[in-house]
Design brief:
77% helix; mainly alpha; 0% strand; 2 domains; MetI-like fold
């Protein structure tokens, strides 16, 4: 198992390099010059040219790409044009914020999505089932950039129950973190809750029709025992794959949500970097996020194999 995981990690390196190459190409196709942005409106052409020379932007694209890859070999993601600090340092400062929101959103997704799907399966073709699936469809269909401002309007502006934005460090104030992170986390989890609920329902319905479940009921086992020990335990195997997808969506969705709620995470950082043509920061941020997603996918594969002995990870 360890050898397979190591092989997967080594196999992910070409993926990461390809992501960085695509990001590099796209950034240089976007109209605009970071040197002009940094120089300001009152700068002369000579000032802009000097900034371009200092940043290495006057070099051919191939030379800039080689310089970027050479830095990666030494663990150097470059220096942010916007912040004036090392890209890796800037990302690591904000990564815990994004991960904490994603983790909160994942907990909400699992609690609500799995519970809703199981309840809908047990109450198939009833008003409970229909209500759960209608709610799931609304969650899947409603984009976060629409739902998030709506939540701010209702829960922050109208009722005043929760703050409309900002972030509080969990260590400084757990309750403050919970209040500040709830609206962004719920906005992140909305799509994933609907998806997980529908997958859980369909998987549970399939499992509940299996012979071993009917045998367990015939033996006189309680309904909770049959559902929890036999049905849900086996249904969690395909659900695990969906959870891996949900984690990826939570992390990628942070770009929009953190911008809406003014959360100082990687998502907001990348948005500012794109607007200011901060090439090193965008490339480094996307590379780090891609690395996290690759690690999540490997962890999901390992968990899937551990839960189902019939599955063996290939090299």
């Amino acid at each position: 198992m360890i050898g397979v995981v190591v092989a997967r990690l080594l196999g992910a390196i070409p993926t990461l390099l390809l992501v960085s190459l695509i990001t590099f190409a796209i950034l240089h196709l976007i109209p605009g010059d970071p040197a002009v942005v940094m120089a300001g409106l009152s700068a002369t052409p000579q000032d802009v040219a000097q900034i371009r020379s200092d940043l290495g932007l006057d070099q051919p694209l191939l030379g800039q790409l080689v310089h970027w890859y050479a830095g990666l070999l030494h663990g150097n993601l470059g220096r942010s044009l916007l912040l004036g600090q090392d890209v890796l340092e800037a990302i690591l400062q904000r990564l815990p914020v994004t991960l904490s929101l994603s983790l909160y959103g994942l907990v909400l997704t699992l609690l609500i999505g799995v519970a809703g799907g199981v309840l809908a399966a047990l109450k198939q073709n009833t008003i409970v089932d229909q209500a759960a699936m209608i709610g799931a469809m609304i969650g899947i269909s409603m984009p976060s950039f629409f739902f998030a401002p709506l939540m701010v309007l209702v829960f922050a502006v109208h009722f005043g129950w929760l703050p409309s934005g900002g972030y509080v460090n969990f260590i400084d104030s757990p309750l403050g973190w919970l209040r500040a992170a709830t609206l962004p986390a719920v906005s992140l989890a909305l799509l994933q809750v609907g998806l997980l609920a529908r997958i859980t329902r369909s998987t549970m319905l399939e499992v509940l029709r299996q012979d071993y479940v009917r045998t367990a009921r015939a033996k006189g086992l309680s309904g909770m025992s049959v559902v929890g020990k036999h049905a849900l335990a086996n249904a969690m195997i395909p659900i695990t794959t969906v959870v891996g997808i949900a984690i990826s969506l939570l992390l990628s969705g942070s770009v929009v949500i953190e911008t809406i709620f003014s959360v100082p995470g990687i998502g907001q950082l990348l948005t500012q970097a794109v607007l200011n043509r901060d090439y090193p920061l965008v490339q480094g941020g996307l590379l780090v996020l891609t690395t996290v997603l690759v690690l999540v996918n490997i962890a999901v594969d390992v968990a899937y194999a551990a839960m189902d002995p019939r599955v063996r990870l290939g090299g």
